[in-house]
Specification:
single chain, alpha+beta, Arc Repressor Mutant, subunit A, three-stranded antiparallel β-sheet, 11 helices, elongated
Length: about 300
């Protein structure tokens, strides 16, 4: 819409309409195919001959849509622009309380012209700008998207949560339950108890939970990020027992990370510092450093 000579390339990925999540309208197609058809429809309405291609990239979402040529002569640009405007208006979310702006809906399909009769016109601030902007009320994402996977939380805060959760698990069961027989001798190491994420959350302060809730994944993501200490399986949190870790277990990425020589003993062992029984592995077998003198 910016100019007649404009061309475009788009790689559809997440299922979004103009204002929110894309609402499915057909059940005979897969969600991905239906969304590709919708994006292609947008290109066709805008007056392009839409071409489809498949990229050679390591992704399941690799179908791209390209608009290189127009389907109308330059003299009909004003007519096509009216067509585009009508298409956008038909896909605007309703102003009434029955539709959620975050989800979005097809204005034409859901309202069937009823919004005009009930007085659900555009808000005044949007109506004032309707003649000068293509899509009033549209809010683009920030150029720099904030990381919300708990990785940007202060180290002191993360360490405090890790210590609190670990002590909760360690004190939830008698120490004798961690006894193992290895090489003919009894080795006592407290593995603690396993608790559900909900039980763990109940023992954390409201301020801590509120801070974690603002991150994607919340408490579970923070615990999984600290894989040296915890293991989260089927919604339950366990103290990780490194004696049971095998090189062949886990995903390829985990094995590569665990056995990478460049990352070996570059961090202090949490168990050596904080666990009442110390680390369950001897220094030469532990992938983490037992003391500052063992750091690489």
């Amino acid at each position: 819409r910016s100019s007649y000579s404009c061309c475009y390339f788009v790689l559809p990925c997440c299922f979004f309409d103009f204002h929110g999540k894309y609402s499915r309208r057909q059940s005979r197609k897969t969600q991905y195919r239906e969304y590709l058809d919708f994006v292609a429809q947008v290109g066709s309405v805008c007056g392009f001959h839409v071409e489809e291609d498949c990229l050679r990239i390591p992704s399941t979402k690799r179908v791209c849509l390209i608009g290189k040529t127009r389907s109308y002569p330059p003299a009909e640009r004003a007519l096509i622009d009216e067509q585009i405007t009508q298409f956008i208006n038909n896909h605007r979310p309703c102003a009434g309380a029955t539709c959620d702006r975050r989800v979005g809906c097809n204005h034409q399909d859901h309202c069937e012209g009823g919004c005009r009769e009930t007085g659900s016109e555009l808000p005044q601030d949007e109506a004032d700008t309707a003649g000068t902007t293509w899509m009033p009320g549209f809010q683009p994402r920030d150029k720099a998207e904030r990381v919300r996977n708990c990785a940007s939380l202060p180290r002191e805060f993360v360490d405090d949560v890790v210590l609190r959760v670990a002590n909760l698990l360690l004190n939830a069961t008698p120490q004798k339950s961690g006894s193992d027989v290895q090489d003919g001798s009894t080795s006592t190491w407290n593995r603690g108890e396993s608790l559900s994420l909900r039980e763990v959350a109940e023992h954390l302060s409201k301020e801590t939970l509120k801070r974690l809730k603002s991150e994607c994944g919340g408490l579970q993501t923070l615990l999984k990020n600290n894989h040296q200490v915890f293991e989260v399986l089927n919604g339950r949190v366990h103290i990780r027992d490194w004696r049971k870790e095998k090189p062949s277990s886990g995903t390829k990425a985990e094995v590569k990370r665990r056995l990478s020589a460049g990352a070996f003993k570059t961090r202090l062992c949490w168990f050596f510092i904080h666990h009442p029984d110390g680390c369950s592995l001897p220094s030469e077998s532990c992938p983490y450093a037992h003391g500052t003198e063992d750091l690489r």
